[in-house]
Amino acid sequence: MFNKILIANRGEIACRIIKTAKKLGIVTVAIYSDADRDALHVRQADEAVHVGPAASPQSYLSIANVLDAVKATGADAVHPGYGFLSENANFADALQAKGVAFIGPPPVAIEAMGDKITSKKIAASAGVSTVPGHMGLIENPEEAVRIASQIGFPVMIKASAGGGGKGMRIAWNEDETREGFRSSRNEARNAFGDERIFIEKFITEPRHIEIQVLGDQHGNLIYLGERECSIQRRNQKIIEEAPSPFLDEATRRAMGEQAVALAKAVGYYSAGTVEFIVDCDCNFYFLEMNTRLQVEHPVTELITGLDLVEEMIRVAAGEKLRIGQEDVRLNGWAIESRLYAEDPYRNFLPSIGRLTRYRPPAEEQRADGSLIRNDTGVVEGSEISMYYDPMIAKLCAWAPDRPTAIRAMSEALDDFEVEGIGHNLPFLSAVMNHPRFQEGRLSTAFIAEEFPDGFSGAVPGDADARKLVAVAAYTNWKIQHRNILISGTVDNDRRRVPQNWIVTLNDQAFSLTVRDEENSIAVIFDDGMRLIVASDWLPGRSHAVFAISGESLSIKTARSGTGHRLRWRGMDVVAHVRSPRIAELARLMPKRQPPDTSKLLLCPMPGVVTTIAVSEGDPVEVGQILATIEAMKMENVLRAERRATIKRIAAKAGASLAVDEPILEFE
To answer: Among 19-28, 146-155, 372-381, which stretch is predicted with the lowest mean pLDDT?
Structure first.
């Protein structure tokens, strides 16, 4: 076994590896950039080494800098996590040349599977079902159009060295092919230093299902079931689960056996993942093999009872697998939700800043048998940087069955408090409570189909609206009583708190009466409906559990002007509790109008301007590219929404802009 492991990564995956290494009694070394000096993984490791500036190419992606850190600390093994150098064969070769173990597969397997074109050829030779496409390199946009037309639209344009949704575009026509080729190549060059592009048929109504494989250096290879990864946005996974609600045992076995056959064809060992696209008839096609630990590995660990990081370490140390295929048992159901620093109310644009509040749910076994796990790399006060991937944490729920796992995840998302940045917690909650998700009717088009106009918060139905109104009435009741006590009146004067209120929620008004009950209140609506509300909430608390007529609701609360902001199950509403007279006057108040920004192109996210595609005085047409912004390793194209003339260019290529800073002005 190893004495000291250097972790060539950052954030939550570095913390995850440290946890297992400590369990095994292995000393850990963290590396960090300028931006990560105070990061959680640096604090948790036994040692830490600075490897360069904030920009990844000069720190985490610098093989020379990482090798210097290995030498300086005397580490005898390196775990690369995922991303960065995890699938870099040159890095693995360099470590082996220095007598340092690479906790991952052999370099030859990384090289073969890291090139998507080569991997598809190997897969076909190994008898693995593959997607129709053009496996040769494509030189320019016009060649891409010709090939796409031959394959038949729609097509998927992919970076050969890609991963994590980078360098991928779907094209439905020739124009989208030209633009997709350019964008994919640019993203691939920036993310991987490799701009090679290929094209394959895009399978409609597809599911993204992947098989976890595990092998040792003695020729033993097994598969550990599958993960359903169909809930994606911009080809980036958001929610994963294991097993898949779609596969039958025969398909699972066939996919697993093909995954193992492919791994054997390249002499694979360590943990790895073979990804497939599966159509509605259970036909499956090889996509790619990820020669590393996957982001979503916790759901496999939860249903198999294995620690995949531990298995990778043991395999790298030369040990044989401790289980065979016949020993693999899939127990229960696990779901993972990825918490991202991106604002769902602004088309999921990246968000940066300080976590002024970060309170994840308790990691524990719950009364219904479910289990909550949270893999994270931040703490309250951590800074979310523009330099790295926007993922903050991976919240996981395990339960004996899928409905219980969904319920446990939904409750855990309600309990998760994050403030200071934009984040996707409300969107994750909305998906978890969506009828189609709960029924398991998934595809990679789920988000595009169910949220075609973007996400503006889940809309409460009448029953949920009344629960939120009752919570607002309760918080108002608590505040009124506190005000009376502060004013120095005696207890009997509590009766002076009015009983009749008007609560407005999403422009809907509810007339109700509030009456004191023993340790609770009764909220009586004008139609006679009665809800009993009890809670330990006190003014100033940002989160509490409210018992409403026997049902427990975990709700985030905050003051919003004169109203009460309530967040629950993906709903984000402001309720105003007013006396009947004040409510009457409020209806007469004019609504504040937002400023007119129609003549400005504003930066939609914190990022770097990579190109300005127009000049002052240029006329532009609808859909014309105006500028591109790079943020958190993704390229974002900004287009004209109407015909106009450019009056002024306010930003230059290379400039770092904050949200809503002007890029250009129209006449």
So the answer is: 146-155
